[in-house]
Amino acid sequence: MSLAFLHSHDCPEPHADAIWGVAWTAADTSISISADGSIKQWLASSGQPHPPNAQFPSPHTLGLVSLSVSPDGQRAMYNSIEGLTSLWDLGTGEVVGKYESYARTTDDAEPSWSISLNPKNETYASCGRSGNVFIRSAQQGNFGERLSALSSGRHKFGMHCSHSPDGRRIAMSSETGQIYVFDLETSSLSTTFTSHAMSVRSLAWSPDCSLLLSASEDKRLALHDVRVAPGGTVASFTGHSSWVLSVDISPDGRLGLSGSADKTIKVWDIAARAAVSTVQDTGEVWSVSWRPKPPALGSVGAFVTGGEDGLVRWWGSAGSGGL
Known about the structure:
Elements: E1 5-10, E2 19-24, E3 29-34, E4 39-43, E5 64-69, E6 75-80, E7 84-89, E8 95-100, E9 114-117, E10 123-127, E11 133-137, E12 146-150, E13 158-163, E14 169-174, E15 179-183, E16 188-193, E17 200-205, E18 211-216, E19 221-225, E20 233-237, E21 244-249, E22 255-260, E23 264-269, E24 274-280, E25 285-290, E26 302-307, E27 312-317
Antiparallel strand pairs: 1-27, 2-3, 3-4, 5-6, 6-7, 7-8, 9-10, 10-11, 11-12, 13-14, 14-15, 15-16, 17-18, 18-19, 19-20, 21-22, 22-23, 23-24, 25-26, 26-27
Protein backbone atom coordinates (compact mmCIF):
# COMPACT_ATOMS: atom_id res chain seq x y z
CA MET A 1 0.00 0.00 0.00
CA SER A 2 1.39 3.38 -1.00
CA LEU A 3 1.13 6.19 1.53
CA ALA A 4 2.40 8.89 -0.80
CA PHE A 5 -0.14 11.34 -2.20
CA LEU A 6 0.30 13.27 -5.43
CA HIS A 7 -1.43 16.44 -6.59
CA SER A 8 -3.82 15.45 -9.36
CA HIS A 9 -5.47 18.70 -10.53
CA ASP A 10 -7.03 22.00 -9.49
CA CYS A 11 -10.35 23.58 -10.35
CA PRO A 12 -9.91 25.92 -13.38
CA GLU A 13 -12.03 28.72 -11.91
CA PRO A 14 -10.96 29.46 -8.33
CA HIS A 15 -13.17 31.18 -5.80
CA ALA A 16 -12.40 34.87 -5.26
CA ASP A 17 -11.63 34.26 -1.58
CA ALA A 18 -10.71 31.44 0.81
CA ILE A 19 -12.57 28.12 0.61
CA TRP A 20 -14.13 27.36 4.00
CA GLY A 21 -15.68 24.01 3.15
CA VAL A 22 -15.32 21.13 0.67
CA ALA A 23 -17.11 17.79 0.34
CA TRP A 24 -16.52 14.89 -2.05
CA THR A 25 -19.93 13.41 -2.85
CA ALA A 26 -21.11 9.88 -3.57
CA ALA A 27 -21.87 11.04 -7.12
CA ASP A 28 -18.11 11.68 -7.60
CA THR A 29 -18.53 15.43 -7.67
CA SER A 30 -17.07 17.89 -5.17
CA ILE A 31 -18.85 20.84 -3.55
CA SER A 32 -17.02 23.93 -2.32
CA ILE A 33 -18.13 26.98 -0.32
CA SER A 34 -16.16 30.17 0.05
CA ALA A 35 -15.67 33.37 2.01
CA ASP A 36 -16.72 35.11 -1.23
CA GLY A 37 -20.28 33.84 -0.65
CA SER A 38 -20.35 31.34 -3.52
CA ILE A 39 -21.03 27.61 -3.70
CA LYS A 40 -19.89 25.51 -6.66
CA GLN A 41 -19.97 21.91 -7.86
CA TRP A 42 -17.08 20.23 -9.68
CA LEU A 43 -16.55 16.94 -11.50
CA ALA A 44 -13.96 15.31 -9.27
CA SER A 45 -12.21 13.40 -12.07
CA SER A 46 -11.34 16.56 -14.02
CA GLY A 47 -12.00 19.51 -11.74
CA GLN A 48 -14.35 21.08 -14.29
CA PRO A 49 -17.60 22.79 -13.23
CA HIS A 50 -20.47 20.31 -13.10
CA PRO A 51 -22.68 20.13 -14.99
CA PRO A 52 -20.94 21.98 -17.86
CA ASN A 53 -22.09 25.61 -18.15
CA ALA A 54 -23.94 25.21 -14.86
CA GLN A 55 -25.60 28.17 -13.22
CA PHE A 56 -24.69 27.80 -9.56
CA PRO A 57 -26.77 29.44 -6.82
CA SER A 58 -26.29 33.21 -6.73
CA PRO A 59 -23.40 34.19 -4.42
CA HIS A 60 -24.43 35.37 -1.01
CA THR A 61 -23.37 38.84 0.12
CA LEU A 62 -21.49 37.31 3.05
CA GLY A 63 -19.21 34.30 3.37
CA LEU A 64 -20.41 30.69 3.58
CA VAL A 65 -19.06 28.91 6.66
CA SER A 66 -20.66 25.45 6.88
CA LEU A 67 -21.40 22.68 4.36
CA SER A 68 -23.15 19.31 4.64
CA VAL A 69 -23.90 16.86 1.79
CA SER A 70 -26.41 14.00 1.78
CA PRO A 71 -24.98 10.44 1.63
CA ASP A 72 -26.42 9.92 -1.87
CA GLY A 73 -24.75 13.08 -3.18
CA GLN A 74 -28.06 14.59 -4.31
CA ARG A 75 -28.42 17.47 -1.85
CA ALA A 76 -26.05 20.02 -0.35
CA MET A 77 -26.89 22.21 2.64
CA TYR A 78 -24.87 25.34 3.35
CA ASN A 79 -24.92 28.15 5.89
CA SER A 80 -23.78 31.77 5.69
CA ILE A 81 -21.81 33.62 8.32
CA GLU A 82 -24.90 35.42 9.62
CA GLY A 83 -27.07 32.28 9.63
CA LEU A 84 -28.92 31.88 6.32
CA THR A 85 -29.32 28.13 5.78
CA SER A 86 -30.00 26.91 2.22
CA LEU A 87 -30.69 23.50 0.67
CA TRP A 88 -29.46 22.93 -2.89
CA ASP A 89 -30.85 20.11 -5.04
CA LEU A 90 -27.77 19.02 -6.99
CA GLY A 91 -29.84 17.17 -9.58
CA THR A 92 -32.07 20.07 -10.64
CA GLY A 93 -29.69 22.87 -9.66
CA GLU A 94 -32.47 24.56 -7.68
CA VAL A 95 -32.28 25.93 -4.15
CA VAL A 96 -35.30 24.17 -2.62
CA GLY A 97 -35.13 25.51 0.93
CA LYS A 98 -34.03 28.65 2.76
CA TYR A 99 -34.24 29.55 6.44
CA GLU A 100 -33.19 32.84 8.05
CA SER A 101 -32.14 31.61 11.48
CA TYR A 102 -31.12 35.15 12.46
CA ALA A 103 -34.75 36.33 12.23
CA ARG A 104 -35.98 36.48 15.83
CA THR A 105 -39.15 34.39 16.02
CA THR A 106 -38.77 33.22 19.64
CA ASP A 107 -36.98 34.54 22.70
CA ASP A 108 -34.26 31.88 22.39
CA ALA A 109 -33.75 32.19 18.62
CA GLU A 110 -30.12 32.32 17.50
CA PRO A 111 -28.24 32.47 14.20
CA SER A 112 -26.92 29.10 13.03
CA TRP A 113 -23.16 28.78 12.63
CA SER A 114 -22.62 25.10 11.80
CA ILE A 115 -25.19 22.82 10.19
CA SER A 116 -25.37 19.06 9.56
CA LEU A 117 -27.91 17.29 7.35
CA ASN A 118 -29.21 14.07 8.90
CA PRO A 119 -28.30 11.07 6.68
CA LYS A 120 -32.02 10.26 6.44
CA ASN A 121 -32.56 13.72 4.86
CA GLU A 122 -35.63 14.51 6.95
CA THR A 123 -34.01 16.88 9.45
CA TYR A 124 -30.84 18.87 10.02
CA ALA A 125 -28.96 20.05 13.10
CA SER A 126 -27.60 23.50 13.80
CA CYS A 127 -25.51 25.07 16.54
CA GLY A 128 -24.19 28.50 17.45
CA ARG A 129 -23.73 30.91 20.33
CA SER A 130 -25.89 29.14 22.97
CA GLY A 131 -23.96 25.87 22.93
CA ASN A 132 -27.19 23.97 22.22
CA VAL A 133 -28.02 21.81 19.21
CA PHE A 134 -31.30 22.53 17.44
CA ILE A 135 -32.98 19.87 15.32
CA ARG A 136 -34.86 21.44 12.41
CA SER A 137 -36.99 20.23 9.52
CA ALA A 138 -35.29 19.65 6.17
CA GLN A 139 -38.62 19.24 4.38
CA GLN A 140 -39.65 21.79 1.78
CA GLY A 141 -43.03 22.58 3.36
CA ASN A 142 -41.60 23.68 6.72
CA PHE A 143 -37.88 23.96 6.04
CA GLY A 144 -35.98 25.28 9.08
CA GLU A 145 -38.82 24.79 11.59
CA ARG A 146 -37.41 23.93 14.99
CA LEU A 147 -38.43 20.42 16.11
CA SER A 148 -36.38 20.04 19.30
CA ALA A 149 -33.44 21.43 21.26
CA LEU A 150 -30.56 19.50 22.84
CA SER A 151 -28.78 21.23 25.72
CA SER A 152 -25.08 20.81 26.42
CA GLY A 153 -25.53 22.41 29.84
CA ARG A 154 -22.90 25.02 29.08
CA HIS A 155 -23.26 28.39 27.40
CA LYS A 156 -20.24 28.01 25.10
CA PHE A 157 -20.29 28.74 21.36
CA GLY A 158 -20.96 25.65 19.23
CA MET A 159 -18.22 25.55 16.60
CA HIS A 160 -19.12 22.40 14.65
CA CYS A 161 -21.86 19.76 14.60
CA SER A 162 -21.87 16.45 12.76
CA HIS A 163 -24.31 13.54 12.50
CA SER A 164 -23.07 9.98 12.84
CA PRO A 165 -23.39 8.02 9.56
CA ASP A 166 -26.38 6.05 10.91
CA GLY A 167 -28.17 9.26 11.91
CA ARG A 168 -28.62 8.14 15.53
CA ARG A 169 -26.20 10.59 17.15
CA ILE A 170 -25.09 14.17 16.75
CA ALA A 171 -21.74 15.49 18.02
CA MET A 172 -21.06 19.15 18.73
CA SER A 173 -17.77 20.85 19.61
CA SER A 174 -17.31 24.09 21.53
CA GLU A 175 -15.10 27.15 21.48
CA THR A 176 -13.47 26.04 24.75
CA GLY A 177 -12.58 22.49 23.65
CA GLN A 178 -15.44 20.31 24.89
CA ILE A 179 -17.18 17.78 22.64
CA TYR A 180 -20.77 16.71 23.35
CA VAL A 181 -22.40 13.62 21.88
CA PHE A 182 -26.21 13.47 21.90
CA ASP A 183 -28.44 10.43 21.41
CA LEU A 184 -31.14 11.51 18.97
CA GLU A 185 -33.44 8.60 19.80
CA THR A 186 -33.71 9.70 23.45
CA SER A 187 -32.93 13.41 22.88
CA SER A 188 -30.33 13.25 25.65
CA LEU A 189 -26.66 14.05 26.20
CA SER A 190 -24.83 10.73 26.28
CA THR A 191 -21.14 11.65 26.45
CA THR A 192 -18.89 14.65 27.03
CA PHE A 193 -15.23 14.68 26.02
CA THR A 194 -12.71 17.19 27.40
CA SER A 195 -9.80 16.22 25.16
CA HIS A 196 -8.72 19.68 24.01
CA ALA A 197 -7.48 22.87 25.63
CA MET A 198 -8.71 25.16 22.86
CA SER A 199 -11.53 25.47 20.32
CA VAL A 200 -12.44 22.33 18.35
CA ARG A 201 -12.88 23.33 14.71
CA SER A 202 -13.94 20.06 13.09
CA LEU A 203 -15.30 16.59 13.83
CA ALA A 204 -15.43 13.37 11.78
CA TRP A 205 -17.14 10.05 12.48
CA SER A 206 -15.79 6.63 11.55
CA PRO A 207 -17.98 4.69 9.08
CA ASP A 208 -19.11 2.26 11.83
CA CYS A 209 -20.10 5.19 14.12
CA SER A 210 -17.88 3.99 16.98
CA LEU A 211 -15.08 6.56 16.73
CA LEU A 212 -15.02 10.35 16.58
CA LEU A 213 -11.95 12.30 15.42
CA SER A 214 -11.56 15.95 16.40
CA ALA A 215 -9.35 18.81 15.17
CA SER A 216 -8.43 21.68 17.47
CA GLU A 217 -6.69 25.02 17.72
CA ASP A 218 -4.39 23.36 20.27
CA LYS A 219 -2.59 21.85 17.23
CA ARG A 220 -3.76 18.32 18.02
CA LEU A 221 -6.24 15.73 16.83
CA ALA A 222 -7.96 13.47 19.34
CA LEU A 223 -9.61 10.10 18.77
CA HIS A 224 -12.63 9.19 20.91
CA ASP A 225 -14.49 5.92 21.37
CA VAL A 226 -18.15 6.92 21.83
CA ARG A 227 -18.98 3.45 23.16
CA VAL A 228 -16.96 4.20 26.30
CA ALA A 229 -18.61 6.58 28.76
CA PRO A 230 -17.43 8.59 30.54
CA GLY A 231 -14.02 9.26 29.06
CA GLY A 232 -13.40 7.45 25.83
CA THR A 233 -10.42 9.47 24.58
CA VAL A 234 -8.18 6.75 23.18
CA ALA A 235 -5.43 8.62 21.30
CA SER A 236 -3.90 12.02 20.59
CA PHE A 237 -2.24 12.89 17.27
CA THR A 238 0.49 15.56 17.22
CA GLY A 239 2.62 16.93 14.40
CA HIS A 240 0.92 20.08 13.12
CA SER A 241 2.66 23.33 14.08
CA SER A 242 -0.50 25.48 14.06
CA TRP A 243 -4.28 25.21 14.39
CA VAL A 244 -5.85 22.07 12.94
CA LEU A 245 -8.83 23.38 10.94
CA SER A 246 -10.45 20.32 9.38
CA VAL A 247 -10.56 16.55 9.73
CA ASP A 248 -12.03 13.49 8.03
CA ILE A 249 -11.86 9.67 8.22
CA SER A 250 -11.41 7.43 5.18
CA PRO A 251 -14.35 5.25 4.03
CA ASP A 252 -12.57 2.09 5.22
CA GLY A 253 -11.99 3.63 8.66
CA ARG A 254 -8.23 3.11 8.61
CA LEU A 255 -6.91 6.60 7.89
CA GLY A 256 -7.47 10.07 9.26
CA LEU A 257 -7.01 13.27 7.26
CA SER A 258 -6.32 16.77 8.56
CA GLY A 259 -5.80 20.27 7.16
CA SER A 260 -4.01 22.94 9.14
CA ALA A 261 -3.13 26.61 9.34
CA ASP A 262 0.50 25.47 9.06
CA LYS A 263 -0.18 24.99 5.31
CA THR A 264 0.05 21.20 5.39
CA ILE A 265 -2.26 18.23 4.98
CA LYS A 266 -1.52 15.13 7.03
CA VAL A 267 -2.71 11.55 6.60
CA TRP A 268 -2.78 9.49 9.80
CA ASP A 269 -2.73 5.74 10.35
CA ILE A 270 -5.41 5.46 13.05
CA ALA A 271 -4.28 2.06 14.33
CA ALA A 272 -0.60 3.05 14.47
CA ARG A 273 -1.45 6.50 15.95
CA ALA A 274 1.03 8.15 13.58
CA ALA A 275 1.23 10.45 10.57
CA VAL A 276 2.09 8.46 7.46
CA SER A 277 2.05 11.26 4.90
CA THR A 278 2.51 15.05 4.94
CA VAL A 279 1.52 17.14 1.92
CA GLN A 280 2.67 20.74 1.57
CA ASP A 281 0.07 23.22 0.32
CA THR A 282 0.36 26.93 -0.57
CA GLY A 283 -1.71 28.36 2.28
CA GLU A 284 -3.94 27.54 5.23
CA VAL A 285 -5.94 24.36 4.55
CA TRP A 286 -9.47 25.10 5.76
CA SER A 287 -11.25 21.94 4.67
CA VAL A 288 -10.51 18.32 3.70
CA SER A 289 -12.72 15.47 2.48
CA TRP A 290 -12.01 11.85 1.54
CA ARG A 291 -13.49 10.35 -1.57
CA PRO A 292 -16.44 8.30 -0.19
CA LYS A 293 -15.91 5.51 -2.73
CA PRO A 294 -13.82 2.70 -1.16
CA PRO A 295 -10.25 2.74 -2.50
CA ALA A 296 -9.10 0.32 -5.17
CA LEU A 297 -7.00 -2.67 -4.21
CA GLY A 298 -3.47 -1.52 -3.44
CA SER A 299 -4.54 2.11 -3.01
CA VAL A 300 -5.42 4.24 0.00
CA GLY A 301 -7.87 6.37 -1.95
CA ALA A 302 -8.05 10.06 -2.79
CA PHE A 303 -9.16 13.31 -1.19
CA VAL A 304 -10.07 16.91 -1.97
CA THR A 305 -8.99 20.07 -0.14
CA GLY A 306 -9.83 23.75 -0.07
CA GLY A 307 -7.89 26.61 1.43
CA GLU A 308 -6.77 30.20 1.61
CA ASP A 309 -5.95 30.58 -2.10
CA GLY A 310 -9.51 29.79 -3.26
CA LEU A 311 -8.49 26.69 -5.23
CA VAL A 312 -10.14 23.30 -4.91
CA ARG A 313 -7.39 20.67 -5.14
CA TRP A 314 -7.65 16.93 -5.70
CA TRP A 315 -5.01 14.47 -4.45
CA GLY A 316 -4.58 10.80 -5.27
CA SER A 317 -2.46 8.07 -3.71
CA ALA A 318 0.65 7.20 -5.66
CA GLY A 319 0.25 4.14 -7.84
CA SER A 320 -3.55 4.30 -7.85
CA GLY A 321 -3.71 5.12 -11.55
CA GLY A 322 -5.65 8.34 -11.01
CA LEU A 323 -8.85 9.15 -9.19
